[in-house]
Amino acid sequence: MTDAADIIARYWAHCDAREWDQFGRLVAEDVVYEVPQSRERIRGRDTYVEFNRTYPGDWRIAVERITADDRHGVSWTSFLVDGTTQTGLCFFDLGDAGLITHITDFWPEPFEPPPGREHLTERY
Amino acid sequence: MTDAADIIARYWAHCDAREWDQFGRLVAEDVVYEVPQSRERIRGRDTYVEFNRTYPGDWRIAVERITADDRHGVSWTSFLVDGTTQTGLCFFDLGDAGLITHITDFWPEPFEPPPGREHLTERY
């Protein structure tokens, strides 16, 4: 496991456990978090921890996959809340100090298959 | 660059160039492609190449990022078609033969920010 993969695994473990001090120590003081789909951005460790700490719902996080090299990593997680499961895909950058400096967060939603490819696909 | 990162880079280069023979040689004969959002699945190299070869529109692919370890990789691409840009996120598994055996493809769409976090976020 690369250092980045280990840091991302700890990030999600602390998040799921609501261990906000330990969670916060994994991100840089000037961490930037972005959601390209809503064009939202959060700057700074304190605000970012607060965003997670106050995220609504009695949610749990299950890590499906972490893929990382030395300085970048990607997590695929299941976000479980109110009997539903959403997929979260996060791209992480790590800085020189081994802290997470940038997170890009995607939330793909279900959609109906486009027409015209039924002859090539099956449904599951 | 890991072998997986190199294979994924070649996969997208051949796809963008419509070099379908070379593209097909990067995936296993029994490759499985899945789109969790639409619950579509494609099985097999020939069908998978045909799916890509006949994908509608005069599209181009720009690779934004590839993150990979030895046997897994993730690509973040921009899919440019008809003056619009869509984000594509693909998770790849590689098999013993160094070929791509499984692809999971996500297409996150824009959404409006949920209420209640305006005090923590900026828009961009």
Shape of chain A: globular
Greatest interface (CB-CB under 8 A), with counts per chain = A-B, 43 and 43 residues
Count of the domains of chain A: 1
CATH topology of chain A: Nuclear Transport Factor 2, Chain: A
Beta strands of chain A, count: 7
Indicate the CATH architecture of chain A.
Roll
Uncertain runs of chain A: none
Instruction: Label the structural class of chain A.
Output: alpha+beta
Written as H for each helix and E for each strand, in order along the chain, the element string of chain A is HHEEHEEEEE
Strand arrangement in the largest pleated sheet of chain A: 2-1-6-5-4-3
Q: What is the end-to-end distance of chain A? A: 32 Å
CATH class of chain A: Alpha Beta
Q: Sheet bearing the most strands of chain A, described?
A: 6 strands, mixed
Number of helices of chain A: 3
Q: What oligomeric state do the depicted chains represent?
A: homodimer
Helix percent band of chain A: 10-25%
The whole-number mean of residue pLDDT values of chain A reads 96
